[in-house]
UniProtKB/TrEMBL annotation:
PANTHER family: DNA REPAIR PROTEIN RECO. InterPro entries: ARFGAP/RecO, DNA_rep/recomb_RecO_N, NA-bd_OB-fold, RecO, RecO_C. Gene3D superfamilies: Nucleic acid-binding proteins, Recombination protein O, C-terminal domain. This is DNA repair protein RecO. The lineage of its organism: Bacteria, Bacillati, Actinomycetota, Actinomycetes, Kitasatosporales. It comes from the Bacteria. Keywords: DNA damage, DNA recombination, DNA repair. Involved in DNA repair and RecF pathway recombination. The keyword DNA repair applies. Belongs to the RecO family. The gene is recO. SUPFAM superfamilies: ArfGap/RecO-like zinc finger, Nucleic acid-binding proteins. Residues 1-67 form the DNA replication/recombination mediator RecO N-terminal domain.
Length: 248
């Protein structure tokens, strides 16, 4: 038996038996981890409330053998709260739905348990912190998180140079299959012609230019969100269940 300690974000929970839960976390050092937390559904549980979605926690695991991810699920034996982001998220519908989509995205991009995904972890921590503080509109925070998650996983879209031939922009056409904007010569069937404002918004969200993003008109924000959803759907091969509930 071995003890492991890591910090992570609780992605979701599942009931197990009468009083236990299976906790899914995205951790800094071990990537996505599923663990059993015994007795946390009892009213006298000392740390059950800390293991709720959106919580940033320091966790101790107890596992068989010398590896955290082995033949069976490890036990979560201790947890300490680092940041309770849920308090600033679950009381607001727009923040809650955006946050839920962020958790689902993080889980989908870390489909192999035990493989470190530090960049995805740091993106999630930063995204939830921004969401909980209400620094920007929730749907903008979500779209920025989705674009950056795609980028760190090798699917960064191009919003300036042609995604096929590299012709410097601005380029008019956008294709999810081509990897972003394309020039007229590289245009593929099914391409769309979004407004320059929507493309500028997505570029700003990807690079962290919040001054530009916050000043964008609502119609261009909706247009940009549609492009992000289509691009994410293409690369994940199926959409996010939670994305349909996000307010635009």
């Amino acid at each position: 038996m071995s003890l492991f300690r890591d910090d992570g974000i609780v992605l979701r929970t599942q009931k197990l038996g009468e009083a236990d839960r299976i906790i899914t976390l995205l951790t800094r050092g071990h990537g996505r981890v599923r663990a059993v937390a015994r007795g946390v559904r009892r009213t006298k549980s000392k740390f059950g409330a800390r293991l709720e979605p959106f919580s940033h926690v320091d966790v101790q695991f107890y596992a068989r053998g010398s590896e955290l991810i082995g033949r069976g699920l490890p036990l979560c034996t201790q947890s300490e709260t680092i940041a309770a982001y849920g308090g600033g998220i679950v009381t607001d519908y727009a923040r809650y739905t955006a946050g839920t989509a962020m958790l689902e995205t993080a889980e989908r991009f870390t489909d192999h348990e035990g493989e470190p995904a530090v960049q995805q972890y740091l993106l999630l921590v930063g995204g939830l912190r921004t969401l909980a503080r209400g620094e920007h509109e929730p749907h903008l925070v979500l779209d920025a998180f989705l674009l950056r998650s795609l980028a760190v996983n090798g699917y960064a879209p191009s919003f300036d140079s042609c995604a096929r031939c590299g012709l410097p922009g601005p380029n008019r056409f956008f294709s999810v299959g081509a990897g972003g904007v394309t020039c007229g010569d590289c245009r593929v069937p099914g391409s769309v012609v979004p407004s320059s404002e929507a493309i500028g918004l997505l570029s700003a969200l990807l690079t962290g230019d919040w001054e530009t993003a916050d000043a964008c008109e609502a119609r261009h924000v909706r247009e940009g969100s549609g492009l992000v959803a289509a691009y994410l759907h293409w690369h994940l091969e199926r959409g996010l269940r939670s994305l349909r509930y996000v307010e635009k």
